From TrEMBL, chain A:
This is Monosaccharide ABC transporter membrane protein, CUT2 family. It comes from Alloyangia pacifica. GO terms for cellular component: plasma membrane. One of its GO terms (molecular function) is transmembrane transporter activity. Keywords: Cell inner membrane, Cell membrane, Membrane, Transmembrane, Transmembrane helix, Transport.
Automatic annotation (TrEMBL), chain B:
The keyword DNA-binding does not apply. This is Monosaccharide ABC transporter membrane protein, CUT2 family (TC 3.A.1.2.-). GO terms for cellular component: plasma membrane. The lineage of its organism: Bacteria, Pseudomonadati, Pseudomonadota, Alphaproteobacteria, Rhodobacterales. InterPro entries: ABC_transp_permease (IPR001851). It comes from Alloyangia pacifica. It holds the Pfam family BPD_transp_2. It is a multi-pass membrane protein. The keyword Nucleotidyltransferase does not apply. Its main location: membrane. GO terms for molecular function: transmembrane transporter activity.
Amino acid sequence: MKLFAKYRILLPVVSLAVLLAATFYMQPRAMSYFGINLLFNLAVPIALATVAQMMIIMVNDIDLSLGAFVSLVACVTATFLNDSPMLGVLILLALVLCYAALGAVIHALDLPAIVVTLGMSFVWGGLALFILPSPGGASPGWLRTLMTVKPPYIPMAVCASVIIAVVTHLLVIRSGIGTVLRGVGGNARSVQRAGWPVVRLKALAYGLAGLFGVFAGMALVGLTTSADANIALRYTLLSIAGVILGGGEFTGGKVSPVGAVIGALTLTLAASFLSFLRLSPDWQIGAQGAILILVLTARLLFTRRDAQA
Amino acid sequence: MKLIQKPWLWSWVAAAAAFALTVALTEGRGAGELAYAALSFGAFAAIVGLGQMLVITLGPGNVDLSIPATMTLSGTLALKAMGSDPGTAWMGLGVAILVGLGTGLANFALIYLLRLPPIIATLAASLLYQSLAIWSNRGLRIKPPAGLADFATGRTMGIPNVALVGLGLSLLIWVLLERSVWGRWLLASGQNLRAARLAGVPVEAVRAATYVAVTVFAAIAGYLLASFSGGAALNMGAEYLLMSIAVVVIGGTSIAGGMSNVPGVWGASLFMFLVVSMLNSYGAGAGVRMVLTGLIIIGIVIAASTRRVAR
């Protein structure tokens, strides 16, 4: 079983495959273009949010404001970006810069990220409520088209997930700057000694998180066609769970972008799978928790066996 | 240590300032009512905050995200067990405490046996508790027994009963932390887990006790809150997730662990209520209120960190 320890990515892939097989077994009709699209449709924004969370976890921090931030972006997208695109784009850019600045401040003043992002979650939530006091707004037409496009053979949700995984893999694992960023999570002091400006690197990691958060909010509006201030609050916890499910760790810069996307897909599929099980809706949330625990237990079994070998 | 250096001072100063600003607007009218309301609502935040404080004291990475689900579950099950019958209040409290013990042990089992990071373990477990609460609640709204409801909303010598319960629990925690071996063990484990283990502190037992304590506190808070608000609701714990962490940090407890602060949790709990009523009475809308609350939290954290550097 050295295989699993060597290739961190295997376990998330296997969990997703098992869950997918079980879903198809329960409901063979899901094994179609339309079925798969339906199963994974909502996974796209969750995958983007998970990648955003991963950027923060990569530098040893944790973001408790991500759900509120994605909600805010959704509100901006459904109002400003739809009514006056120029202003909308400017606001979204400003939000990304805010995130980068946040990263710099957290590092420069040595603040606990968990608390600062906690405070920011109120700020984002408040701004969202300010923009859209009651549910509403409308998705820009091009965004709607983009999210409901029907490519031949492979459903949009799968295409998008693959693209997100490949792009972030190239960015975080393959590129030079990605390696340095992971180094910040591994040992910030050595990176500093090696002559890198850690403040700027942290700002970059947070900025990337903000960028993917913006994408997540836009994708969400493209799917739901409207927004409200609480639309994505559960993304905070979902994204953390997705990163860990995908083989990431809270410390040491050990993250896997492909794993994070797969983790997000697994969490989304878990919800659909349970409805096929004809499980009472009461237990849907709980079963997501159970699946999370099961996968992590599996991971523990494999890593422990390797330690003994 | 001089008064000015006490880490809990700032949360009390902030609470007093928010109180003064609110009362200034009404020229002194309603000061008593405001203080009363702050004590009532602050008590719930303080009770869950005390539990969260103990967990955060265990050091970085330790935080309990199952507080809202535990509150909902204990409130739901306790009210269901009591079924509005008179004379069942103690039995209901027993049920609530059992729920707290159960969820705490389950959380710690996940953390210890599966070696899960506490954040993920309590998060995953809380999803299960939430489902359990939904399943047993089924949208029913059972009223608490009349006597219990009267107690939860009533007052003794002008002080809300829930605040008295909260004060009693705070005193208990304070004595445990300052005067008992267990408290010393907890602080030692939070400061350096490895050193504490080598020094013979039973660190796993300390961690287990802490993770059980936090859910028992959350369960008691859930029981009281359900009785206070005339029934358990499925989302009744939701706001206490962020609140429990916020009051601990604003109260001056170090997020790095190894340092607890009981009075600060109270100051911060009162402050969190008072700042909202202050913004309310100045006519701020819901959005502005949240933004300012968030900025104030961050401001306090920054102020606390510069104080740390200066020292």
